[in-house]
Write a structure and sequence with these properties.
binds NADP nicotinamide-adenine-dinucleotide phosphate, about 350 residues, four-stranded mixed sheet, binds ligand G4F, seven-stranded parallel sheet, alpha/beta, single chain
């Protein structure tokens, strides 16, 4: 049987790297878009580079950028993939307030560059398209959200993603492209970017437990997120692309927890009970047994606008496609803490043997 060919933007990111591994296991040929950087940015896919890029010739990385129409057009023309997963993005909400124009260009117009190239190259019958849409598009509604909920973005990131969401729908309806949105709620893994609250916390907890630091500085402890496992979410992306028709689907767990709870659970994994004292920016989290302060608030992590509560209803994808999350919240937190401890121990041993 002919092997399917996938093209992944954002292949060097959390989801892109996990999706590349997932598709390679399914015998796909995988092409990925990577940005030119002055230092290596392929750390998350280095483990599959030798086997699949050098030996089996199943993984190909191409320089390009979602802000560069020429490279997008050229690559789609050369590769002519069966499936395009648009995962590339400036994906940090707080940073989108600092770089709003760039974020809009990459996250909003980047999607349009891909969709328009697919139509202009007359590949609309061949290519299926997946857009990594986000629960941030809903903004602050404080209720369970599904495909019929309204969108009220409150950050440049969310408005850029909403542009991409709409163009995915518009190109589907206007040109008949198989183009689907996965409206994904927060999803994490051991390879999550280090400036998202989950990874920032688990890495700090691992360092504290090994005596390498004492304090974790954070922003808003009281927002709630629907946190799932990224490995489950890349499976959902693939299932959406295999479904009989293109459509829009919420990918979520239908559970929500506060940032405070995430931090408490991560410390619990290393045997530390965190108690809280004080209010606002003076609030501290301290070790119940030793009284040592391990969590402090730093205003720099507050956002000009905050989404306070996210919880997603994944009934549609469950009933139509048969996807449900496998990893729950506490399994996720424990997995991330354990992996960070393992990696830290490895790098400490490596450092000692290098000396
Ligand atoms: P991530 O780890 O930040 O990865 C983003 C990827 O996009 C990286 O490979 C990055 O390259 C690439 N990229 C950034 N700017 C680019 C540009 N100008 N041109 C080409 N590539 C560019 O994000 P993620 O967590 O894997 O998320 C994947 C996608 O899902 C994103 O679109 C995100 O917005 C969306 N999403 C994520 C979540 C979540 O909770 N993780 C939830 C909803 C939606 P470098 O490696 O060079 O930086
Ligand atoms: O981990 P976060 O930065 O993720 P956020 O803003 O929810 O965005 C992530 O999920 C979206 C889907 O809902 C994606 F579209 C997006 O690409 C990204 O993957 O922050 C989570 C919560 C926020 O309420 C934030 O204010 O944690 C709060 N927080 C508290 N202290 C912090 C910190 N966030 C970060 N990054 N760093 C802190 O020190």
């Amino acid at each position: 049987m002919k092997r399917k060919v996938a093209f992944i933007t954002g292949v060097t990111g959390q989801d892109g790297s996990l999706l590349a591994k997932f598709l390679l296991k399914k015998n796909y040929i995988v092409h990925g878009l990577k940005r030119r950087a002055s230092s290596f940015n392929t750390g998350r896919i280095d483990s599959i580079y030798e086997e699949h890029q050098l030996k089996n010739k199943k993984l190909f990385l191409h320089y390009g950028d979602l802000t560069d129409s020429l490279s997008i057009y050229d690559l789609l023309n050369k590769i002519k993939p069966d499936e395009v997963y648009n995962l590339g993005a400036q994906s940090h909400v707080a940073i989108s307030f600092i770089n709003p124009e760039y974020t809009t260009n990459v996250d909003g117009i980047g999607n349009l560059r891909l969709l328009d190239a697919i139509t202009k190259l007359k590949l609309k019958k061949k290519i299926k398209f997946f857009q990594a849409s986000t629960s941030e598009m809903y903004g602050n509604q404080k209720k369970i959200l599904n495909e019929n909920s309204k969108f009220e973005p409150v950050s440049p990131y969310a408005s850029a993603k909403l542009l991409a969401y709409w163009n995915t729908k518009i190109y589907r309806e206007a040109y008949g492209i198989f183009a689907s949105n996965g409206i994904m709620f927060n999803h994490e893994s051991p390879v999550r970017g280090e400036n998202f609250i989950s990874k920032k916390t688990t890495k700090a907890v691992a360092e504290i437990s090994l005596g390498l630091r004492e304090v974790l500085y954070v922003g808003n402890l009281n927002s709630y997120r629907d946190w799932g496992y990224a490995g489950d979410y890349v499976e959902a992306m693939w299932k959406i692309m295999q479904y009989k028709k293109s459509d829009d689907f919420v990918i979520a767990t239908n559970k929500t927890h506060s940032v405070r709870k995430f931090i408490e659970l991560a410390f619990k994994r290393v045997g530390i009970t965190i108690n809280w004292k004080g209010q606002g920016i003076k609030e501290i989290g301290y070790n119940k047994e030793t009284n040592k302060i391990h969590v402090r608030i730093d205003e720099i992590y507050f956002r000009p606008n905050e989404v306070e509560y996210l919880k997603g209803d994944y009934t549609k994808i469950k009933n139509s496609i048969g996807w449900s999350p496998r990893i729950n919240f506490s399994m996720l937190v424990n997995m991330m803490v354990d992996e960070d401890i393992k990696n830290l121990k490895k790098s400490t041993i490596q450092f000692k043997s290098d000396k």
